[in-house]
Amino acid sequence: MQTEEKHPVSLETLTTLCKRRGFIFQSSEIYGGLNGFWDFGPLGTELKNNLRDAWWRDMVRNPPPGPDGEMLDIVGLDSAIIQNPDVWKASGHLSGFNDPMADCKQSKSRYRADHLFVLMPPDAEGTAYAFLEGEENAARKKVQRKAKADPDRYEVKPFPEVASTDLSRIQGPDATEPGTLTEPRQFNLMFKTFIGALSGEGDENTAYLRPETAQGIFINYKNVIDTMRVKLPFGIAQVGKSFRNEVTPRNFIFRSREFEQMEMEWFCHPDEAEKWYNFWVETRLNWWASLGVDLRNLRRREHDEDELAHYSTACADVEYQYGFTAPGFGELEGIAHRGNFDLTQHQESSGTKLEYMIQETGERVLPHVIEPASGLTRGVLVLLNEAYTEEFVPKGDTEGGPIPANPGAQAPEGYETRTVMKFAPRLAPVKVAVFPLLKNRPELVEKAKEIHSELRKIWPVNYDQAGAIGRRYRRQDEIGTPYCVTIDFDSLEDNTVTVRERDSMEQVRVPASELATWLMSKGLSV
Ligand code: ATP
């Protein structure tokens, strides 16, 4: 949990740390990588699984009480990634899941038109400079350097609002001359594949990788009602991979072409949809805060009327202040009031009745749906952003606690910088590290290994005997391990160990026989 006002960490610093410490690697790296795809390393996998499990526990197994204190009923699902293509016709994805894009004829780059902005010069002829959202500063420098003009006199315009007659004087973000950007065109974001070993690549064999997990829920809604004795209102949740052929994948794992989502469809009586919409927006924002995300870095953004899908009556995003959006915010989760659009579409297209009968009154309704849809991989980026901390600590871990520092700042005399990932203990990829004080004393090593093998029955635990204790602490700080346990000569005498807490760096002696219980009492859940 953050107490001081922190300066945002750059994406470059985060990406480097993630690679160096085994959180996230570029996909297919030894073959030169593949744009828009990432591989989760050993620690990233643990972190992502912990976030997924926290969501599942707090949404499915033990959801919060409803607005009137009632118990909520939410069940889980794991539907196939490839579904009957008719699903995507009915949902509107085949015809409507498009992003407008612009190509650059010179650099061969392709941009989402709604992510492009243009610095328009005050005169009608001068060159205008296009830039991607978040890269305005670089574009302003270009104006100074190339046009030798004052960028403050230029007007920022969204690219889709630029007249087509002005295209010839716009220089693309990666171009060296103006006039190479095309007009925005629609681009379908679904990945195609072909079914059957002997199949040709004809239309009749075409299928799609799902671009969201939500439709798998709608097409199983009737199965769930028929088998699970759920009563309206209830939810169906699932976590899994989604694929979008994003035009401009970027900002690390913020926007990738393969990612994971955590989605829940809340089915309710149409008369109560408004109440549930407000409840879920509030609940979801608070959930991210419950994971240790500072509320100052979170905000609720209600969509404007012209942003809403035609069937949706309200939609709000939970936004986070990422390092690369600061001081602005970017989407983390969307909570949409979808009305009965999806069930109506699937009912009509499949010919299967999807109405729900309220037993007490005999009333038949097509439930309305509130959908909290968040990105699991994007959530990992939030956790990494939020956890990343640099601090000044007295050299050699002598006296005094850590002093907050801004990323990249120089340590004052007598101090050194430590990088520490302040993950909430529940999310930390490694929970405990065990060290023998010296690696060349068999009795210390033996006892440390004994304690290590006991603790690893409960948690992911590291064992490290290499180098000075201070260096071993730093290694664990950098991956966010909440507790380090050292076995020293006193341990051999009185069977106690030193436990050092990550954030305060405070040390206490704990009887080895009570270690696991002590750690649990400090918030390490099983
Ligand atoms: P955007 O407008 O940024 O493309 P969206 O509003 O289409 O996103 P949704 O369809 O509402 O996104 O998806 C729900 C969540 O899934 C998003 O809030 C985000 O966390 C995650 N998500 C969507 N697209 C991507 C992606 N390409 N990479 C990583 N996460 C994504």
CATH fold type of the largest domain: BirA Bifunctional Protein, domain 2
Strand order of the largest sheet: 3-13-14-20-17-16-15
Helix content: 25-40%
Number of alpha- plus pi-helical segments: 14
Using the coordinates above, name the CATH class of the largest domain: Alpha Beta
Percent of residues in β-strands: 25-35%
Number of strands: 28
Structural class: alpha+beta
Bound molecule types = adenosine-5'-triphosphate
What does this structure look like?
With 526 residues, this protein is α+β, with helices and mostly antiparallel strands. The chain folds into three domains: 279 residues, BirA Bifunctional Protein, domain 2 (2-Layer Sandwich), CATH 3.30.930.10; 91 residues, no CATH class; 92 residues, 3-Layer(aba) Sandwich (Rossmann fold), CATH 3.40.50.800. Strand 27 and strand 28 form a beta hairpin. Helix 2 crosses helix 10 and helix 3 packs across helix 9. The mean pLDDT is 93. The structure holds adenosine-5'-triphosphate.
